Amino acid sequence: MSDLAVKSGEGTGVSDSPAESPSGVGEERDKSVIVPYRRFKMFSCNECGRYFKANSDMKRHSMLVHGKQRPFECVECGSRFGIRGDMNRHVKAIHRRVRPFKCDHCSVTFARKSTLATHVRSVHMREKPFCCEFCDATFTTKATLHGHLRSFHVNDAAKNIRLNSAS
């Protein structure tokens, strides 16, 4: 058996039966995949595509991050969070303005190392690694690509899905 992704088969750990959606409502679909170069089953979040080793971790993530269950409240502004660490990060970055990551090129500071890295790639290196599949537009972040798709290619995406499901 190859290490590349497989649809199903004996000994792969992937089931042909669809898994129920985290909300328990709507269309059922298989959330499990075999990731290339890995021999274990992964579960992906329907909302953001993040992968998890355990289905229970994926369901917890979905409920806390995308669901309505947000038990942790910021005492400063009332914003609610599904995960305590997210609330603590919010308090540090927004209310205490803790920004320990400084750009060597322009001295702008950031609360997260990943945001600094994105800033350097997009502003100083002018990288635009995210490409639209429907036109020649390129973007610095996945979020801006998704915004572009929602604004300009809603019908193109629907047509593409219909064409792929027909074949």
UniProtKB/TrEMBL annotation:
Please provide the record's keywords in A-Z order: Metal-binding, Nucleus, Repeat, Zinc, Zinc-finger
Query: Which SUPFAM superfamilies has this protein been placed in?
Result: beta-beta-alpha zinc fingers
Mainly localized where? nucleus
Q: Gene Ontology cellular component?
A: nucleus
Pfam families named among the record's database cross-references: zf-C2H2, zf-C2H2_4
> InterPro entries under this entry?
Znf_C2H2_sf, Znf_C2H2_type
GO MF annotation terms: DNA-binding transcription factor activity, RNA polymerase II-specific; zinc ion binding
> Which region ranges are annotated with the description Disordered?
1-29
Instruction: Tell me where it resides.
Output: Nucleus
Superkingdom per UniProt: Eukaryota
The residues covered by the C2H2-type domain are 43-71, 72-100, 101-129, 130-158
Q: Does the keyword S-adenosyl-L-methionine apply?
A: no
Indicate what this protein is called per its UniProt record.
C2H2-type domain-containing protein
